[in-house]
UniProtKB/TrEMBL annotation:
A GO term, aspect molecular function: lyase activity
Organism, as annotated: Pseudoxanthomonas dokdonensis
Transmembrane segments: none
Protein name per its UniProtKB record: Lactoylglutathione lyase
Ranges of residues in domain VOC: 9-136
Length: 140
C-alpha cells in the first residue's frame, strides 16, 4: 500500500502541566519558546519551538482533565521531547542551563535521531518531563 503522505518533522507536541504560567515561564527562559497563541477558554498555550510547536495544557483544564490525574514519578505522559538545536556547544549549554537552575542528567552523549548520531543533553522541565537538546549529526 502506498502512503499518500510523508512525515516531514514534528509539528507539535502537547504536554499536560500542573501550573500553566510556571511552565510557560520555564519554556521561555530555558528554551526561548515564545507564546504565539493563548486559549484561556481551554487553558492552552501554543509555544513556538523553532519550526515546531510545544502546546501546554493545564491538567485541571477542559483539555488536560481528560487525561486524568497529573503525571507523577511513576506515571509519565511522555518519555521525552527531543529538540534539534544548533549550534551545540556543550559548555555554553551547561552554563545556560545552570543559570536557569536546570541540572542535566549527565554530560553530552551521542544518540541516534532524525539526522543520525549526534550529541545530546537531557534534563527535566518543572513537571518532570524529560527534554533532550540534540545537536547536528556527527561526522561518520
Amino acid at each position: 500500500m502506498t502512503r499518500p503522505f510523508a512525515v516531514q518533522r514534528i509539528d507539535h507536541v502537547v504536554l499536560r502541566v500542573a501550573d500553566l504560567e510556571r511552565s510557560q515561564a520555564w519554556y521561555a527562559q530555558v528554551l526561548g519558546c515564545d507564546v504565539v497563541r493563548r486559549r484561556d477558554d481551554l487553558e492552552l498555550l501554543h509555544l513556538r519551538a523553532g519550526t515546531s510547536m510545544i502546546d501546554l495544557i493545564s491538567v485541571d483544564g477542559p483539555l488536560g482533565s481528560a487525561g486524568g490525574a497529573a503525571a507523577g514519578s511513576e506515571a509519565r505522559n511522555v518519555d521525552h521531547l527531543c529538540l534539534r538545536i544548533g549550534p551545540f556547544d556543550e559548555a555554553s549549554l551547561l552554563r545556560h542551563l545552570d543559570a536557569c537552575g536546570v541540572s542535566t542528567r549527565g554530560p553530552a552523549s551521542a544518540n541516534f535521531g532524525a539526522e543520525g548520531d549526534g550529541l545530546s543533553l537531557y534534563f527535566r522541565d518543572p513537571d518532570g518531563n524529560t527534554i533532550e537538546l540534540k545537536g547536528p549529526s556527527l561526522p561518520a
